[in-house]
Amino acid sequence: xxxxxxxxxxxxxxxxxxxxxxxxxxxxxxxxxxxxxxxxxxxxxxxxxxxxxxxxxxxxxxxxxxxxxxxxxxxxxxxxxxxxxxxxxxxxxxxxxxxxxxxxxxxxxxxxxxxxxxxxxxxxxxxxxxxxxxxxxxxxxxxxxxxxxxxxxxxxxxxxxxxxxxxxxxxxxxxxxxxxxxxxxxxxxxxxxxxxxxxxxxxxxxxxxxxxxxxxxxxxxxxxxxxxxxxxxxxxxxxxxxxxxxxxxxxxxxxxxxxxxxxxxxxxxxxxxxxxxxxxxxxx
Length: 284
Hints:
CATH topology of the largest domain: Rossmann fold
Strand order of the largest sheet: 3-2-1-4-5-6-7-8
Number of strands: 8
Structural class: alpha/beta
Radius of gyration: 19 Å
CATH architecture of the largest domain: 3-Layer(aba) Sandwich
Order of helices and strands: EHEHHEEHEHEEHEHHHHH
Shape: globular
Strand content: 5-15%
Number of domains: 2
CATH superfamily of the largest domain: NAD(P)-binding Rossmann-like Domain
Helix content: 40-55%
CATH class of the largest domain: Alpha Beta
Distance between the termini: 41 Å
């Protein structure tokens, strides 16, 4: 069964997934809070594909064909969607509220996935009245480059839903890493532990940010150093996740003062132009 993939939230994650899914031959339904919101997402996808065509990375006639695989929708108008991935901001109350609202019209056979990177899936499933039938599908951005998905499975999950999610991952050309549900899953816990320790080293003056990153990139083969990665993820998001993980797992996830100070001053990383590193305006 080839899923028709609905993506709720045409933001960074949603658009990255929509772009890659269409390039992999999937039918995509981009769902915004209203139709103009979703259509702005289509405009951005068209721009990206035109840019790839200009650079010779896809054929000149590909943008039109790719855009033909994507349609704009609004919530509760599911058309032919057979799978739905929610890709809204990482705020537990907001996600729970959205899933509770969606539960009014979701067809029982819909494969339901949350794109959360760290929030427990179980409470969202309860809000959606989909216990056993809502899974985590934690993607890494940009999806076209980061060829893995963390499939988060709460206890008692439907075997059929798990198989369909695994098949969707395969259709997207992604390695599927199956993990147990919990705060932070596996990837965020590992990445955050490294990022927080790098911040402590920077705070203590052990080495510069550039040298700390270089040690992990050149010494251990990481594509990005922990300082650079933290800025790309967003220091506000890192702090939120660290606070949740500290409540769950103790002092090993205590946020260092450097991180709290950056966030309190609005230095959130790449998106604000300054974080643990500084960025020129054209990169921010």
